[in-house]
Amino acid sequence: MSRQIPDRLQSPLSRFLRSWEALLLCVFIAVFVINSYASPYFLNAWNLSDATFNFTEKALIAFAMAMLIIAGDIDLSVASILALASTAMGLVMAAGHGTPVIVVTGLVTGLLCGAVNGVLVAGLGLPSIVVTIGTMSLFRGISYIVLGDQAFNGYPSDFAWFGQGYVVWVISFELVLFTFCAIGFGILLHCTSFGRTVFAIGNNPTAALFSGIRVARVRFILFLLTGVMSGLAAVCLTSRLGSTRPSIAMGWELEVVTMVVLGGVSILGGSGSIPGVVLAAFIMGVVTFGFGLLNVPGIVMSIFLGLLLIGVIALPRLIRRR
Amino acid sequence: MQPVLSLRGISKSFPGVKALSGVQLDLYQGQVTALIGENGAGKSTIVKVLTGIYQPDAGTISLGGKVVHFAGADAAAKGGITAIHQETVLFDDLSVAENIWLGHAPQGRFGLIDRAAMRDGAVRLLDSIGADINPDLCLRELGIASRHMVAIARALSIEAQVVIMDEPTAALSHKEIHELYDLVDKLKGQGKAILFISHKFDEIFRIADRYTVFRDGGFIGEGLLADTSEHALVQMMVGRNVDQIFPKRKHRLGAPVLTVAGYCHPTEFADINFTLHCGEILGFYGLVGAGRSEVMQALFGITRPSKGACRIDGHIRALRSTSEAIAAGIVYVPEDRGRQGAVKGMAVFQNVTLPSLPRTSQAGFLRLAQEFALARKYATRLDLRAASLDQDVGLLSGGNQQKVVIAKWLATAPRVIILDEPTKGIDIGSKAAVHAFMAELAAQGLAVIMVSSEIPEVLGMSDRVIVMREGRIVAEIEGAAMTPEALLRPAAGIAAAA
Amino acid sequence: MGLLKQREVLLALAILVMTIGIAVRFPAFVAPRNLASVFNDTAPLMILVIGQMMVILTKCIDLSVAATLALCGMVAALLNGLGFPLPLIVFCAVALGAVLGAVNGVLVWKVGMPSIVVTLGTMTIYRGIVFLLTNGKWINAHEMTPAFKSLPREMILGLPVMSWIAIALIAGFAVVLTRTPLGRAFYAVGNNPHAAVYAGLDVGRTQAVAFVISGALAGLVGYLWVARYAVAYVDIAAGFELDVVAACVIGGISIAGGVGTLAGAMLGAVFLGVIKNALPVIDISPFWQMAISGSAILLAVAFNASRGRAKGRLILRREDTP
Fold it and tell me: Of B267, B268, B287, B292, which to mutate for an interface test with C (greatest number of C Cβ within 10 Å)?
C-alpha cells in the first residue's frame, strides 16, 4: 500500500501572497503613494536617486547581518568595524597610496575584524551579543586612539566615484552595488546548501550538529561576511563623505538590526528572507526621504521608525493570540 | 470510603493531539494508586493538570469533596498537591536548599527569607529520605541520582495531602529504590493519598493498593490490585493480546565492522570495550543515567573520549566531529528526537536531505527536484504519514518525526546505525514498523546498535546485549542466557541470587 | 559557590592592583577626597547597573535605559521650570521611569516580543520624545533653581548626597536580591524558565517587574544627572546603555540569565569608573577609554564562559573517576 505523499500542498504563489514579504510590499507601496501626495518634490528622478543613499550602505551590511541573525547570532560591532576600516583607509591614504590599495585595505580590515568576532564566538563559543558589544567598543576605540578628534581628509578624486558616482543616468554606483549584493545574498541564502545549513543552525543548532553540519565553520564564515560587508560599506560611505572621523556611522548597528527585523527576520533565528530585507530597506529609505522633504527632524523620524518596528513585530503576535 | 481527590470528565487537547478525553481518577487517603498506561496514554498530561501546569478543557477536580480550580502551579501546591515529576525541573545555579524551598521559603521578619530555617528544613528533609547531600552545594555540582533526591525533597517540602510520583525509580540505584519504598510506606502511614506512575509491574504490585488504567488518553478501568493480575493489567493497557511479536530474524553475523577499545571519559564513562559485526543488532541495556547515550555520542563525534581507540574495518579512525563519524559510516538517531533529531521549523524534505546536501546539490546550489526525489523514496519506504513533504516536521506525530530522522540517516548509506531509545514515546503501531525496519536493515548487512530501556524490546530484537551501569559495562549476554533477570540484576546492581 | 566568590575576588583584586599602580606614580589619586570623587562620579552608572542586572538575570536586556534617563531628566528640568517642589519633581521622575519601564515590561510579558527588539524600539521613541518636548532646545543651568541643582552635591559626612543615594540603593537591593522571594524569582526564572513554571513562578510577570525597576532607577538617575551637570538636552547619556551592559558583563552577570551577584555588578561598574577617572591622571588620552573597556568586556566574557562550562550528567561516581 503505497500512498503517495504530495510534495507540496500550497503553490509557491499562494505561499508568497500570505507572507511577510507581501505585507511589506503593501506597506512600501502605501508609503510611496502617501509621500508622492505629501510633497511635490518626491516624484523627481534625481531626488529619488538621492534618496537611495539613505539606505544602500546600511543595506549592504544588513544582507550579511540577516544571514547571521537567521543562524542565531548577532553582530553589534558592524558600525565600529566600518569606523575602523575607514580609519585604516585614511591611514593608507595619508601614506600616499592610491585608490586600489585604499579599497583593498578597507575590505581586508573588515574581514580581519570579522575574523576576530568569528574566533571568539564560533571558536570559543562565547555569546555573540556580549562579544560584539565588546568588539564594538574595541574597534571604534582603536579608531579614536588613532584619530582622536581629528579627521582624515584629502582622499584621491577617483576614490570619490564609489560613493558619489553614477553608472548610467540617475542610477548611482551604490545602487548598482546594492542590487548585485541583494541578488548575490539572495542566491546564497535561498538557493545554496550553505544557505540551507544557515536555516538549520538557526532553528536547532544541536540537531544541526547531530546532522553532520559543521556548525562552527558556518558561523565563522557568517562573521567574516558581516565584517567584509561592513568594510565594503566603509568604502562607500567614506567615499561619499570624502572624510573619516572616528564617530563615522555612529549608531548604525541598531539601524541595521532594525532593517533586518523589519524585513521579517526573526531575532531568535531560523527564519527570514533577503527579499524581505530589500523591501525593508526601501521602506526605511522612502520614509527617511519623505520625512526629510517635509523638513521633519531626524530624531522625530526615529520615533516613527521605533513605532514601526514595535508595531510590525507585535501585530502578528497579537493576532495569533486572538 | 470517600476519595480525597476525584477527577471526572477531564479532557485536554493540544493542536493536533487529544491528550485526554473524559478521564476519571480517584485517590484515597492512606492508599497508593498506581496509574498504568503505555507511553502516550496521557499519564504525564494528567500529572500536569493536577499540578496546575495545564488547565483542563473540560471536567472537574474535587479535593476533599469541593470542586477546585488551579490557575497555576503555586495554586496546586497551596491546595495540597505535590509532585515528583519525571523530568527533574530544578535550577542549576541555585543551592540545594534554595531549590528545595523555591516559591515557598520560610519567611522571617518583614517577609524576608529566613535562611537559617531554610537550611535546617533542607537538612531535615534530606535526612528523612536518606540522602547525604550538603544543602549549601550548588545544584550544578551534583550527579543525576542526587538531583533526583533533591527533587524528591522538594516535593516533600510542600505540606500536601496528595503526593504524585511519576516514574520515581527510573534513575535510582537498588539501595535508593528500597529507601523510596520505605518512604512511600511512611507517607501512607501519615494518611497521604499517593499517585504512583510506573512501568515496572513488580514495583506496582509491591507498593500499590489500587490501580487505574489509561489508554490513548481515555480511562479504561480501575480497581484493587489484589483483585487482578499482571496479565489482565497489560491487556487493559494495550487493548489486545499481549505477547509482543518481534520480527523473526536469521541471526547471521558478518565480519566485525566496529571495534571499540578502552574508551574513557573524565566524568561519564570508563573502560568501554566491544565489537560489532555486520548484520548484527547489538542491544545496550541499562537504567536511566547508565551512560549509554554518552558512549554513543562519543562514537558519533559529538564528544571526545579522553582515552581509547575505535577501529572501523580494522583501521583506527579518530572521530572528532559528526562529519568525520558520518564519513566513517557511523550515524546516530538520538534519544531526544525534538532537541537533537529533527529540525522543527524546517520542512520534512529539508530534514531528510540535511546530511546529504553535498550529494543532492550541484556545485553548492540546491536542486529541489533531487531533494524531493530522495525524500519521497524514503518516505514511501518507511511509510511516513504526513500531509506533504513540504510540511513543517514539528507538526508530525512523534512516531513520524522518528521516521523522518531515520530516513535522514538511511539516505547517507551508513555502515553502522546507532538507535538511542528508538521507540520511546511512540504508539504501538509505529513501534512495530520501526522494529520491522531494524530487522530489515540488519538483514541487508548494516550493523545496528540499539540502546533501549525496555526489556521486552531488548530481548526481542538483539542478537547480543551489553548491560551498563554507572558508566561501565557490567555484563555481556547472548543466546540462551538472555533473560529478563540476566539483564535486570547487573543493571540495577543486585547480586545474582545464590 | 566557592567559584563564584572567586570571580568577585579576582575583580576586586584587579581594581586594587590598578589603583595601587596609579597611586605609585600619582599618590594624589588615592587621597580620600579623590576616591570619594571617583565613587561619586560612578554613582549614576552603579544605580543603572542595579536595574540592568535584574533585567539580565531574567534573561532579558534593556537597551532603553539611557533614553529613559534622558526623558525623565528633561521632564524633571521642565517641571522645575514650572515651579514644582523638589520632592514632587524627584517623585515624578521616578514614576515616569517606572511607567516607561512598564511599557517595555508589558510588551515582553503580554505580547511576547523579544526584549532586544522591544528596547531597541522604545530607545528611539523615548529619545525622540525628548526632542518633541522642547523642540530641540536645551535647558541650561541658569534656567534651573539652585535647590534643584544643588541636591546631588550636598555634602553629608564627607560624601555627596548622590553617593549616599547609591549606597542606600545598593544596600536595599542587596537585601531584595538575596533575601526576598522576588529576588529568588529573578534568579530562578533566568536560570531555567521551564522549571520556574513548575515552581509556580510567572516568568513574564517577573521579567516585567525587572523592567519596571530598571525604568524607575533610570528615572531617578535622570534627575540626578540633569541636576549634577546642570543641563538637559536630547543627547545626554547617549550610548550609556552599552556602558551599563558592559559593567554587568564585566561584573560576572551572565547574558544567559540566572547567574551573577550584586557585588560583582557593582565591582564591574567601579572597574569602569576607575579606568575613566584614572586615564586623565596618568596622562593617557581619554580616547583610550573605549578600547580599554572593550577589551575588559571581552576578557570578562571569556572568563564567564570558562567558569560555566556545562558539565555533562556526571555519571561516574566520584571515587571511580579515572
Answer: B267
Structural domain includes residue A146: yes
- Strongest mean pLDDT among A306-320, B27-41, B372-386, C174-188: C174-188
Looking at chain A, how many residues does it have? 322
B163 vs chain C: nearest CA distance in angstroms? 15
* pLDDT above 90: residue B25: yes
CB contact, 8 Å: B337 with chain A? no
Residue from the list A149, A261, A299 with its beta carbon closest to the beta carbon of C131: A299
Q: What is the DSSP string of B157-216?
A: HS--SEEEEESTTTT--HHHHHHHHHHHHHHHHTT-EEEEE-S-HHHHHHH-SEEEEEET
Q: To the nearest 5 percent, what fractions of chain A are helix, strand and coil?
A: 75, 0, 25
Taking 50 as the threshold, does the pLDDT of residue C1 lie above it?
no
Number of H helices, E strands in chain C: 13, 2
The verdict on a CB contact (< 8 Å) between A133 and C293 is: no
Alpha carbon of C241: minimum distance to chain A alpha carbons (Å): 11
Query: Per CATH, which fold does B256-492 belong to?
Result: Rossmann fold (3.40.50)
Nearest to A61 by CA among A47, A79, A43: A79
Q: Which of B317-321, B425-429, C206-210 has the lowest mean pLDDT?
A: B425-429
Task: Give contacts of C249 with chain A, Cβ < 8 Å.
Answer: 130, 133-134
Residue A197 lies in a domain: yes
- Chain C window 285-314: which residues touch B at a Cβ cutoff of 8 Å? 311-314
Q: What is the CATH number of the domain that holds A290?
A: 1.10.3470
- Number of domains forming the structure of chain A: 1
Tell me what pLDDT residue B239 has. 66
Tens digit of each residue's pLDDT (9 = 90 or more) over A76-127: 999 999 999 999 999 999 888 888 999 999 999 999 999 999 999 999 989 9
Give, to the nearest 10 degrees, the angle between helix A274-293 and helix A45-52.
120
**Inter-chain touch B268–C313, beta carbons under 8 Å:** yes
Task: Evaluate whether A282 touches A55 at the Cβ level (below 8 Å).
Answer: yes
Beta bridge partners of C236: none
Find, in chain C, the residue whose alpha carbon is nearest to that of A251. Answer: C239
Structural domain range at position A62: 42-315
Among the partner residues C191, C313, C317, nearest to B91 by beta-carbon distance: C191
Q: Is B66 helix (H, G, I), strand (E, B) or coil?
A: strand
Relative to beta strand B162-166, strand B81-84 is: parallel
Q: Say what the pLDDT of residue B243 is.
A: 52
Q: How far is C318 from chain A (nearest CA, A)?
A: 28
- β pairing state of B272-277 and B315-316: unpaired
Q: How many CA atoms lie within 13 A of B179 on its CB side?
A: 14
Q: How far does the CA of residue C299 sit from the closest CA of chain B (Å)? A: 22
Give the torsion through C-alpha atoms of B68, B74, B77, B81, to 10 deg. 60
Q: Do domains B5-238 and B256-492 have the same CATH topology?
A: yes
Please report, rounded to a whole number, the percentage of residues in chain C having pLDDT higher than 70. 93
Q: Which of B90, B94, B143 sits opposite C314 (nearest CB)?
A: B143
- pTM to 2 decimal places: 0.87
Those chains having 3 or more beta-carbon pairs within 8 angstroms of chain B are A, C
**pLDDT at C2 > cutoff 60:** no
CA nearest to C264, candidates C247, C279, C284:
C247
Is residue A6, in this structure, part of any structural domain at all? no
By Cβ distance, the residue of C184, C195, C315 closest to B143 is C315
Sign of CA dihedral B417, B423, B427, B433: positive
pLDDT of residue B498: 41
Q: What is the per-residue pLDDT across B399-409, written as a single tens digit (0 to 9) for each?
A: 788 889 989 99
- B5-238 placed in CATH 3.40.50.720: no
Interstrand relation of B307-312 and B315-316 (parallel, antiparallel or unpaired): antiparallel
